[in-house]
User: Which sequence fits this backbone?
């Protein structure tokens, strides 16, 4: 079948994956070959039989996983060759070594094997183009890795769609709810996503997304192991060799994971379950050579105690998403459940109690994402290059353009014969076109112009409408054409045509006023924007010279992704995704330091990014492709050091002024230390802890910035009050001044009035933009300080400056200088100058430099004294 739409969608999940296609207007899940299941485990294994190595994928690999995990724990020389949950390390430098294959596999290489397996379920045609789902919070490096996996699996073209968006498409097609706000609550095996949708007359738009790439069913399994099973073993067995060895502890935890998964599912329908090792099963020995056995009862109450905090995180993320969009659970028409863990009664009850009782469960949470991916695929054109390579040369090839989904009952379809056919095939002068729907509607035979006809077709509501195309010659013979059918989905439509950005995309910008390197979003690449999209960042400056042909002259422009609350935070706390590198080899002429550079970022529909850098000085543009970087994690001991540093930073910044926030942040950081110690050698656990650490570092950074604001406001008031006192004092002596001094005083008085007006306006703008407000305070404070010294300089002269230098020298040790050595040097330099006919301007410069070396509190105190 020659398709013009992609029509195939894959849910590439952490624990399970599925493939679906559009067939005769309906979604069909392609079942696995032998087991005839809707999903397969996202599991890959390597085996060696009689010197021949082979790859196992899906159930064949998963069925050996429990045994493999046990052998890994109690056989020191055994090497595991079965891998699962590698989706959580996509886009990183993590590898999975196979001794049998003599290769270290990346996450995308293992994912490619899962994709190949899913692709093999289609027996009737070769799939060249595909839609693959990804979590809403996947970063660009993770998405890039997913596309690479698709290419490795043999797909020539791949687009991505966020998992909750795909689920909403599957839900919306047959839903009676055509208006209002929806929440898609996607709690999967490895990730949690939530998406807020707004539907108006069947047209759906993504409003906002959120989630946690390290929150899912896997966390539940390990929580049961860490909080129930491990305490049992500590009380009943001597396993000090395990508790003291991170690698051994990781193997021990993995050994029990399969058993815990099964019992977790049982608890969805039972009040208690027995976790019991069976006779003949070998789980290894403790340090006293006693065989490890497990015989405990896990009650629903114990289970809920352990998993409630995990579910609560998902609930909190959802409510925060609603809150920042000025909505509540009462605003929702429905909440759609996606993912196996959403079958848990506790989670459903928590959602109804804390978000909304309007839960929809009519779709299978295990396959709804794959179904939605296929529906989305039915709206996406296969690239013309792929269609051209697969044309049926024996048939007349048509070009058909139409809306793949619609909320209208009538749509227009454009049909024409491909130009190559017009040039190479002798066609009848009188052709006729007929478009018919299998349920009794037809255009009848109408005259057809091979260069193109636009035909109106009628749709049946709330279903997939399959249309057949026929072309006849003047003798009434039906001609062989390709394609000969198309489908339009009626009743629901996605408003956006591309992918939704889950993060702000920005660059590192140095703020000279606040003296910070901050993450600033690129205009146009804001969170929730839709691809294809263009972002512009004008007004940047080159930090160094670029000489043509000199490869060692380099300018680096780092690109970051940041979340909703990350704007204006220190850049290195955000997720680094790429570096734009411009060298002297890229430019044809000299680019001096501090030259203007305008940046244009383009993200295509498939989320590939490119950047152009324009240098106005030489009217020249450089084009650069963006190569997304893989993530590299530090070792566990370094992560622990970073956590300790963050705790110290929280103590220093928050101190006694905000004890509740300090306790909250330090508790989160200490919890991260516990998590790391429980499974520190596990790459996934390290990634999870690092992500949590960054969130707390950003929270501390925002508090640091916020607490700096009152100090800046107080300093502004102090310097302004001192300026007014000086003007009032001079005004009281006005009668004793000559005309020249009076004229100068009037000029200064007008300048102070202008500052007063700007200060009043500034206070009114306080709530508009805190970042701009802080910049304005700093600029105005500096101007007031300069004006104050200018007035002093004019009316007081050298004597006052010299007296102030002596005062600073006498009180040197009482001032908390930011750079004591430099301050001492400046004071001594000024005093030496004052003994030898000093220049007033030079003394003024020295005093201004000294003021900058003082904290705000000391500056204010000094101004009041003088």
Assistant:
């Amino acid at each position: 079948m020659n398709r013009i739409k992609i029509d195939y969608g894959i849910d590439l999940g952490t624990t399970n994956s599925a493939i679906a296609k559009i067939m005769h207007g309906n979604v069909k899940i392609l079942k696995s070959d032998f087991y005839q299941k809707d999903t397969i485990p996202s599991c890959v294994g390597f085996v060696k039989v009689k010197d021949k190595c082979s790859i196992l994928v899906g159930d064949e690999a998963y069925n050996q996983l429990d045994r493999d995990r046990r052998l890994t724990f109690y056989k020191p020389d055994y090497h595991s060759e079965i891998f699962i949950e590698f989706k959580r390390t996509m886009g990183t430098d993590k590898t999975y070594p196979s001794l049998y294959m003599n290769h270290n596999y990346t996450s995308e290489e293992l994912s490619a094997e899962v994709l190949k397996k899913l692709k093999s379920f289609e027996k009737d045609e070769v799939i060249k183009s595909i839609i693959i789902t990804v979590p809403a919070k996947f970063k660009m490096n993770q998405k890039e890795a997913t596309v690479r996996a698709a290419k490795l699996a043999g797909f020539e073209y791949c687009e991505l769609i966020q998992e909750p968006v795909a689920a909403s498409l599957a839900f919306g097609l047959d839903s009676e709810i055509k208006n209002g706000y929806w929440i898609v609550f996607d709690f999967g095996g490895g990730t949690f996503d939530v998406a807020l949708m707004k539907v108006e007359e069947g047209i759906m738009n993504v409003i906002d997304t959120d989630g946690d790439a390290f929150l899912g069913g896997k966390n539940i399994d390990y929580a049961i192991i860490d909080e129930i099973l491990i305490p049992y073993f500590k009380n009943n067995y001597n396993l000090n060799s395990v508790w003291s060895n991170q690698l051994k502890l990781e193997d021990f935890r993995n050994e029990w994971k399969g058993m815990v998964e099964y019992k977790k599912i049982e608890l969805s329908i039972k009040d208690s379950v027995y976790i019991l090792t069976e006779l003949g099963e070998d789980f290894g020995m403790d340090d006293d050579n006693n065989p490890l056995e497990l015989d405990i009862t896990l009650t629903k109450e114990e289970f809920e105690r352990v998993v409630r905090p995990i579910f609560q995180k998902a609930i909190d993320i959802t409510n925060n998403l609603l809150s920042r969009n000025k909505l509540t659970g009462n605003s929702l028409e429905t909440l759609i459940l996606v993912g196996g863990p959403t079958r848990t009664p506790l989670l459903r009850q928590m959602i109804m109690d804390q978000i909304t009782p309007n839960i929809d469960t009519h779709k299978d949470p295990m396959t709804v994402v794959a179904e939605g991916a296929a529906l989305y695929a039915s709206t996406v054109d296969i690239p013309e290059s792929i269609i051209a390579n697969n044309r049926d040369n024996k048939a007349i090839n048509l070009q058909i353009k139409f809306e793949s989904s619609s909320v209208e009952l009538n749509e227009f379809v454009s049909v024409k014969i491909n130009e190559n056919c017009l040039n190479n095939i002798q066609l009848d002068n009188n052709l006729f076109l007929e478009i018919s729907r299998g349920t009794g509607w037809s255009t009848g035979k109408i005259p057809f112009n091979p260069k193109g006809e636009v035909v109106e077709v009628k749709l049946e509501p709330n279903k997939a409408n399959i249309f057949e195309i026929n072309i006849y010659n003047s003798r009434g013979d039906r001609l062989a054409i390709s394609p000969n059918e198309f489908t339009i989905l009626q009743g629901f439509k996605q408003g956006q045509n591309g992918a939704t950005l889950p993060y702000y995309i920005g660059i590192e910008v140095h703020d000279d006023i606040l003296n910070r390197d901050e993450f600033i979003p690129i205009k146009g690449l804001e969170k929730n924007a839709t691809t294809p999209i263009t972002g512009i960042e004008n007004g940047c400056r080159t930090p160094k010279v670029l000489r043509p042909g000199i490869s060692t002259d380099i300018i680096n422009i780092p690109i970051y992704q940041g979340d909703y609350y990350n704007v204006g935070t220190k850049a290195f706390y955000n997720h680094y995704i790429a570096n734009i590198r411009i060298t002297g080899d890229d430019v044809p002429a000299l680019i001096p330091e501090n030259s203007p550079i305008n940046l244009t970022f383009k993200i295509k529909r498939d989320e590939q990014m490119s950047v152009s850098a324009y240098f106005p000085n030489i009217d020249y543009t450089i084009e650069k492709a963006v190569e997304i970087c893989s993530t590299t994690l530090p070792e566990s001991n370094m992560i622990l050091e970073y956590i300790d540093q963050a705790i110290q930073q929280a103590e220093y910044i928050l101190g006694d002024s905000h004890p509740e926030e300090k306790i909250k942040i330090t508790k989160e950081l200490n919890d991260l230390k516990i998590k790391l110690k429980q499974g520190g050698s596990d790459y996934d656990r390290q990634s999870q802890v690092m992500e949590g650490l960054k969130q707390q570092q950003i929270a501390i950074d925002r508090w640091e910035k916020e607490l700096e604001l009152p100090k800046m406001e107080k300093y502004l008031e102090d310097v302004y009050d001192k300026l007014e006192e000086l003007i009032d004092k001079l005004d009281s002596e006005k009668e004793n001044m000559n005309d020249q001094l009076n004229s100068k005083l009037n000029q200064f008085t007008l300048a102070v009035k202008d500052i007063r007006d700007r200060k009043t306006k500034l206070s009114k703008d306080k709530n508009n933009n805190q970042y701009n407000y802080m910049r304005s305070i700093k600029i105005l404070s500096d101007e007031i300080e300069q004006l104050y010294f200018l007035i002093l300089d004019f009316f007081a002269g050298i004597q006052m400056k010299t007296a102030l230098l002596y005062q600073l020298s006498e009180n040197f040790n009482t001032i908390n200088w930011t750079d004591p050595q430099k301050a001492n040097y400046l004071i001594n330099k000024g005093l030496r100058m004052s003994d030898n006919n000093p220049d007033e301007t030079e003394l003024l410069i020295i005093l201004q430099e000294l003021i900058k070396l003082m904290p705000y509190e000391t500056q204010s105190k000094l101004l009041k004294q003088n």
